[in-house]
C-alpha cells in the first residue's frame, strides 16, 4: 500500500519525503539494534539450518582462474591478487572448521590446467603456495580444470565428500571437447562442483552446478566475495548416503549396583 | 484479458499493444477459447500470424491450453488446426522435395488438376486421390493438431495434408494460418469464403499488416513473354466449342472446373463485374490478338529512358490513344485467360506465368482508379548504365485489401509488441477501433536495462546517418562499442544493423582495422545472410556456442528474417545492440509515392511516418531478448539520434518506462560500467516475492474484480 501511495505522487525527487536510512533500523527495548542488524544480515546468507546429514570428511579442490580477465582492477589490487589474499585467510578458517579435510590447488591459464600443490592439510603450506604472485594470461579452460580435478578426486575413498570449488573470472571457456560429457562423468562420480563467478552469470556454469548439486553465485563487490567464499566453509548436505563410520569415542555405561571400594 | 472480452461483447474491433515475451499468445487464446465455449453460438476463432514458426508456436500453446482445460475437468469437443502453404504440408515423395514454394504449387497442380485426372494413364498423386475417393469418410477427431501432428495423421490415413486441412476448415473451432489466406484476394476467395460473419479474427504481430496488403495487390513486370504464338497453334476445335459456350453465357460446365484455381482473380470479390465477357474478346483468336497488342504497347513503354510515375487513369488514357484498347475488355483479361487455359487443358502452367502476370496487371489497372501508382524505372539503381527496365505497379493504400476483412467480420483484434503510435494505425488501416490499449510489464525486478550510447570513448558522436556512416572514426567507435560489450556479456550477444549493405561495408572496414580478430578473442562471430539455409546453420551454431560456454556474437539485419521470427531468450541473448536507426531505403520511388499518398489522404507527415516505422522495427528487434519473467537482458541503442526527445518518445511505453536520465546520452565506457553492474545484480537470486506483483492467486483476482465493480458503481 505504501508503494502505491508513493508512486501516485509524480513529484520531483526533492519534493518527496527524504528517506533516512538510519530510520530503517529499529531499536530494541534495551536500546540495542542487534536484532535489526541480524535481520539485514540474514537476508544475504540463507543457510539451511535444518538437521541434515553432512559429510565432515571433505576433500576440496580449489581451481583458481589465472586467465587475463583476472588482471582487471574491479577488485583491489587486481582480481587475481585479491583472490589469493582472500584464500590465505580462507585456508586457515576452513581447516579450522573442517579438521578432517584437505585441499588441493589447481590453476588454469592459456587453455590448460596445472596443479599448484598436492593434498595438503596445513594452512602454512598452502599459504606458501598462494603467496607466489602469478601473472594472469591467456584463456581459461573449464573442461581441462574439471577433468584434472576429477582425476585427483577419483582416488579418494567413497565415504569422503568430494568437492570442487571454482573461482572463475572469465565469461567464456576454451575447451577441447564437449563439456556435457565432463558433466556426466562428474555426476556419476558424485563430485559436487560449486562456482563463484566474478563477472556475470554464465549458462554453462549454472548447468554444471545444477547437475552436480553445487551452488553458483556471482560476486557483486569485495565484501560480497568474502561472504560467498566463507559460505562454503560449513559442510554441505550429503548427496549420497554414505555409510557411517565408527568413531572411537568412549561410551558411558549405566551400572546399576555400584560397589565402591571407597 | 478484460479488454479483449469487452471487444468481443461490443462486437467491435480493437488495437492492443503488449510488450514482447509477456504471454500475449496464450492470454489471447485462453480468453477467446473460454469465450467460445461459454456462449452457445460457437463462434470460430481465426488467428493470423506472420511466419510459419509463429504458427507452430501458437498451435503448441493451444495444445497446452486444451490439455490444461481437460485436466481442470472441462470435457469439450474442440478442433484446432493450422494451415500453411503446400511446401510445408506436402507428403508426396517427389513434389515435397522442391525447394521453392512456387514450383511445389505448380507441380501439385499438375498432378491434381481435374482434366489431368480425367486422362487415362497419367501419374496421379495417390494422397489426393485417396482423399477424393473417401471424401465422405474423411474426418478428424477433436483435438489440437500442430502441423507435424496433422501431417502424420493424414499420412497415416493416406490423405494429402494440404487438401485435407482445407476440407476440415469448416469444422474447426480454431484456425491458425498466415495473413495471406485472409488478405490476399487470390487466395482468400478459395479458402476463406465460407467463414461466417461472427467469427473472431486476431492479427498477431501486426506491425507489417500493411505490407501484405500492398504485396497482394502489386505487380512488377520485368520481362515479356512470347507464349502467344504457342497458344495460337492449339486445337481449334476446342476453341470453337468454347466460343459457343461463352456466347450463350453458359457457365455450368465451367463451374466444375472452377474448383481448380488455375489463376484466381486478382481483384477483390466485390469489384468483379457481374457481367458476361465483352464481345471483342470472346473468340479466342480475338483475345489472343488483343493481348498481343497490349503486350506490344507495354514493350514500347519500357523503351523510355527516364523515370515515369503515373496514375492508372492516365495510363489507360494513353493506352486508348495509342492502341484503341478500351478499359472495359481489360477488366476481363484475367478471367478470360484463365478460362482459355482451362479450355485448352494446358498442362505445364509454369511456362505461362509471365502471361498470367500481364493479364492480372491489365485487370488491376482497369479496375482500380485510385490508390495505385505506375512507376517505370529504366535502370535498377541510378548509377547503372545498362538499361534494365522495371515497371512497378504498386498499391499505395493499405486499406484496400483489409477493408473487406473489417467489414465482413464483427470482431477483429490487432495486436503486437510495438504498435506505437496507436493513433496512427487506425488511420492507415481505415477502421474504427472500439478498444485501444497499451500494456506494460508487471515485474518483480526491472529485468532489462535500456541504454542510449551516443558517443565513443573519444567523444566522437556515432550514428548510422547516411553522411557519416563511412567515416573512419564512426566505424572505429562502433567497433569499440561491440568489443567492450562483448567483453562484459556472458553467453550470447545479438547486433542489428539497418541494412545488409551497411552491415557488409562495416564488417569489411572492421576487418581492415584488425578488430575482427579482437572480437574473436572473446566470442565467436556469426552473421546473417539473405540465404535462408545459411542463416539457419549460423543460428544453430550460435545457439550451440552459447550453450557450451564459448560465447557468440550474431550480426544480423533489422528487417531480416532473424529479427522477425527468432527469439533470443535467456542465454541466447543477454545483450542486444541496435547500431543506428533502421530506416527504410528512402530513395525508393515506391516509398516516395506511398508517403505522398499518405500525406494527401490521411494527413500523416512523411517524417513522422518514416521515423515511427524505423523505431518500431528497432523496438521489435530489441524486444527479441526478453522472453519471460525470469529472463533479463541489456538493450543498447547506439546512435546519437536516439538521445533526442522526439526519437526517444517514439519507443514503446514499456521500454521508455525503464529508461531514466542516467541511461541517456552515454559514452561507451559509461555504458559499459552500467552494464557490468546490471549483470552482477541480475545474477543474484530473485529477492522479492512474485505474489502480489507479477503473480496473482485466486483470491487476489477476485479482490481486483470486486474492487473494479465497486469503482464502476
Automatic annotation (TrEMBL), chain A:
Matches recorded under InterPro entries: Ssl1-like, VWF_A, vWFA_dom_sf
All residue ranges annotated as the VWFA domain in the record: 59-233
Location relative to the cell: Nucleus
Keywords: DNA damage, DNA repair, Metal-binding, Nucleus, Transcription, Transcription regulation, Zinc, Zinc-finger
Any one GO BP annotation for this protein: nucleotide-excision repair
Record-linked SUPFAM superfamilies: vWA-like (SSF53300)
GO molecular function, one term: zinc ion binding
Matching Pfam families: Ssl1
Major location category of this protein: nucleus
A GO cellular-component term linked to this record: transcription factor TFIIH holo complex
Domain of life: Eukaryota
PANTHER family (alphabetical): GENERAL TRANSCRIPTION FACTOR IIH SUBUNIT 2, GENERAL TRANSCRIPTION FACTOR IIH SUBUNIT 2-RELATED
Family: Belongs to the GTF2H2 family.
Name of this chain's protein: VWFA domain-containing protein
TrEMBL record, chain B:
GO molecular function: 4 iron, 4 sulfur cluster binding; 5'-3' DNA helicase activity; ATP binding; damaged DNA binding; hydrolase activity, acting on acid anhydrides, in phosphorus-containing anhydrides; metal ion binding
An example Gene Ontology CC term for this record: nucleotide-excision repair factor 3 complex
Alphabetical keyword list: 4Fe-4S, ATP-binding, DNA damage, DNA repair, DNA-binding, Helicase, Hydrolase, Iron, Iron-sulfur, Isomerase, Metal-binding, Nucleotide-binding, Nucleus, Transcription, Transcription regulation
Reactions performed catalytically: ATP + H2O = ADP + phosphate + H(+)
EC code: 5.6.2.3
Gene3D superfamilies: 1.10.275.40, Bacterial XPD DNA helicase, FeS cluster domain (1.10.30.20), P-loop containing nucleotide triphosphate hydrolases (3.40.50.300)
Subcellular locations according to the entry: Nucleus
Domain Helicase ATP-binding: 1-258
Name this polypeptide is given: DNA 5'-3' helicase
Species in which this protein is naturally found: Boothiomyces macroporosus
Taxonomic lineage from the root: Eukaryota, Fungi, Fungi incertae sedis, Chytridiomycota, Chytridiomycota incertae sedis
Amino acid at each position: 500500500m505504501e508503494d502505491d501511495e508513493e508512486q501516485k505522487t509524480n513529484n520531483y525527487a526533492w519534493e518527496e519525503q527524504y528517506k533516512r536510512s538510519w530510520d530503517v533500523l529499529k531499536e530494541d527495548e534495551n536500546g540495542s539494534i542487534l536484532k535489526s542488524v541480524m535481520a539485514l544480515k540474514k537476508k544475504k546468507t540463507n543457510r539451511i539450518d535444518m538437521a541434515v546429514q553432512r559429510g565432515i570428511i571433505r576433500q576440496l579442490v580449489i581451481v583458481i582462474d589465472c586467465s587475463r580477465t583476472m588482471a582487471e582492477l574491479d577488485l583491489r589490487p587486481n582480481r587475481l591478487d585479491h583472490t589469493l589474499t582472500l584464500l590465505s585467510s580462507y585456508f586457515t578458517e576452513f581447516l579450522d572448521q573442517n579438521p578432517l579435510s584437505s585441499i588441493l590447488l589447481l590453476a588454469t591459464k592459456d587453455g590448460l590446467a596445472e596443479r599448484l600443490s598436492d593434498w595438503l592439510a596445513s594452512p602454512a603450506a598452502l599459504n606458501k603456495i598462494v603467496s607466489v604472485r602469478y601473472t594472469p594470461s591467456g584463456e581459461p579452460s573449464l573442461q581441462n580444470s574439471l577433468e584434472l580435478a576429477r582425476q585427483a578426486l577419483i582416488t579418494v575413498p567413497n565415504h569422503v565428500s568430494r568437492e570442487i570449488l571454482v573461482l572463475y573470472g572469465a565469461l567464456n571457456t576454451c575447451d577441447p571437447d564437449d563439456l556435457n560429457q565432463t558433466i556426466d562423468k562428474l555426476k556419476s562420480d558424485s563430485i559436487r562442483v560449486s562456482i563463484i563467478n566474478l563477472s556475470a552469470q554464465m549458462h554453462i556454469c549454472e548447468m554444471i552446478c545444477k547437475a552436480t548439486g553445487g551452488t553458483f553465485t556471482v560476486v557483486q563487490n569485495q565484501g560480497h566475495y568474502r561472504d560467498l567464499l566463507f559460505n562454503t566453509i560449513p559442510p554441505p548436505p550429503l548427496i549420497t548416503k554414505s555409510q557411517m563410520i565408527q568413531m572411537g569415542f568412549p561410551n558411558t555405561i549405566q551400572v546399576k549396583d555400584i560397589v565402591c571400594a571407597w | 484479458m478484460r479488454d479483449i472480452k469487452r471487444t468481443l461483447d461490443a462486437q467491435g474491433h480493437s488495437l492492443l499493444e503488449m510488450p514482447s515475451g509477456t504471454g500475449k499468445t496464450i492470454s489471447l487464446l485462453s480468453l477467446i477459447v473460454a469465450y467460445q465455449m461459454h456462449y452457445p453460438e460457437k463462434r470460430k476463432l481465426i488467428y493470423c500470424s506472420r511466419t510459419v514458426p509463429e504458427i507452430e508456436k501458437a498451435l503448441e500453446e493451444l495444445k497446452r491450453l486444451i490439455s490444461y482445460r481437460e485436466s481442470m475437468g472441462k470435457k469439450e469437443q474442440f478442433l484446432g488446426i493450422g494451415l500453411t502453404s503446400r511446401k510445408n504440408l506436402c507428403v508426396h515423395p517427389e513434389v515435397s522435395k522442391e525447394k521453392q514454394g512456387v514450383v511445389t504449387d505448380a507441380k501439385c497442380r499438375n498432378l491434381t488438376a481435374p482434366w489431368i485426372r480425367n486422362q487415362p494413364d497419367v501419374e496421379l498423386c495417390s494422397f489426393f486421390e485417396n482423399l477424393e475417393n473417401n471424401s465422405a469418410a474423411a474426418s478428424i477427431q477433436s483435438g489440437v493438431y500442430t502441423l507435424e501432428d496433422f501431417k502424420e495423421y493424414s499420412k497415416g490415413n493416406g490423405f494429402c495434408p494440404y487438401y485435407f486441412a482445407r476440407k476440415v476448415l469448416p469444422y474447426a473451432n480454431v484456425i491458425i494460418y498466415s495473413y495471406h489466406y485472409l488478405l490476399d484476394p487470390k487466395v482468400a476467395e478459395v479458402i476463406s469464403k465460407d467463414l461466417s460473419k461472427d467469427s473472431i479474427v486476431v492479427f498477431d504481430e501486426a506491425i507489417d499488416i500493411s505490407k501484405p496488403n500492398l504485396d497482394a495487390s502489386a505487380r512488377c513486370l520485368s520481362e515479356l513473354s512470347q507464349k502467344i504464338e504457342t497458344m495460337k497453334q492449339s486445337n481449334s476445335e476446342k476453341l470453337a466449342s468454347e466460343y459457343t459456350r461463352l456466347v450463350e453465357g453458359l457457365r455450368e460446365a465451367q463451374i466444375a472446373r472452377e474448383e481448380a484455381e488455375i489463376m484466381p482473380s486478382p481483384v477483390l470479390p466485390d469489384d468483379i463485374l457481374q457481367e458476361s465477357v465483352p464481345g471483342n474478346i470472346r473468340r479466342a483468336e480475338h483475345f489472343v490478338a488483343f493481348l498481343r497488342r497490349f503486350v506490344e504497347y507495354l514493350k514500347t513503354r519500357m523503351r523510355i529512358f527516364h523515370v515515369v510515375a503515373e496514375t492508372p487513369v492516365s495510363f489507360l488514357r494513353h493506352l486508348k490513344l495509342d492502341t484503341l484498347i478500351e478499359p472495359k475488355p481489360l477488366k476481363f483479361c484475367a478471367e478470360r485467360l484463365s478460362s482459355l487455359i482451362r479450355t485448352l487443358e494446358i498442362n505445364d502452367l509454369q511456362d505461362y506465368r509471365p502471361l498470367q502476370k500481364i493479364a492480372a496487371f491489365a485487370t488491376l489497372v482497369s479496375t482500380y482508379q485510385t490508390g495505385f501508382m505506375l512507376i517505370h524505372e529504366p535502370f535498377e539503381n541510378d548509377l547503372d548504365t545498362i538499361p534494365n527496365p522495371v515497371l512497378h505497379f504498386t498499391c499505395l493504400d493499405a486499406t484496400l485489401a483489409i477493408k473487406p476483412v473489417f467489414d465482413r467480420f464483427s470482431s477483429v483484434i490487432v495486436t503486437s509488441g510495438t504498435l506505437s503510435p496507436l493513433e496512427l494505425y487506425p488511420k492507415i488501416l481505415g477502421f474504427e477501433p472500439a478498444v485501444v490499449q497499451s500494456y506494460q510489464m508487471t515485474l518483480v525486478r526491472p529485468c532489462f536495462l535500456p541504454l542510449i550510447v551516443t558517443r565513443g570513448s573519444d567523444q566522437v558522436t556515432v550514428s548510422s546517418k547516411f553522411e557519416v556512416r563511412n567515416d573512419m572514426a564512426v566505424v572505429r567507435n562502433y567497433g569499440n562499442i561491440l568489443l567492450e560489450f562483448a567483453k562484459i556479456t556472458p553467453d550470447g550477444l545479438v547486433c542489428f544493423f539497418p541494412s545488409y549493405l551497411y552491415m557488409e561495408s562495416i564488417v569489411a572496414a572492421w576487418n581492415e582495422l584488425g578488430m575482427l580478430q579482437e572480437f574473436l578473442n572473446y566470442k565467436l562471430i556469426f552473421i546473417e545472410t539473405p540465404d535462408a539455409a545459411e542463416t539457419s546453420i549460423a543460428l544453430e551454431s550460435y545457439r550451440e556456442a552459447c550453450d557450451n560456454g564459448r560465447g557468440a556474437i550474431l550480426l544480423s539485419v533489422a528487417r531480416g528474417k532473424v529479427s522477425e521470427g527468432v527469439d533470443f531468450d535467456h542465454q541466447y541473448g543477454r545483450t542486444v545492440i541496435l547500431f543506428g536507426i533502421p530506416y527504410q531505403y528512402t530513395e525508393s520511388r515506391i516509398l516516395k509515392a506511398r508517403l505522398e499518398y499518405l500525406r494527401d489522404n490521411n494527413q500523416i507527415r512523411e517524417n513522422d511516418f518514416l521515423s515511427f516505422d524505423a523505431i518500431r522495427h528497432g523496438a521489435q528487434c530489441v524486444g527479441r531478448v526478453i522472453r519471460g519473467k525470469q529472463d533479463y537482458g541489456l538493450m543498447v541503442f547506439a546512435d546519437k539520434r536516439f538521445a533526442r526527445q522526439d526519437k526517444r518518445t517514439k519507443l514503446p511505453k514499456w521500454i521508455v518506462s525503464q529508461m531514466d536520465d542516467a541511461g541517456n546520452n552515454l559514452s561507451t565506457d559509461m555504458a559499459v560500467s552500467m552494464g557490468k553492474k546490471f549483470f552482477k545484480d541480475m545474477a543474484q537470486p530473485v529477492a522479492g516475492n512474485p505474489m502480489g506483483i507479477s503473480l496473482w492467486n485466486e483470491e487476489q483476482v477476485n479482490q481486483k474484480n470486486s474492487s473494479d465493480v465497486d469503482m464502476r458503481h
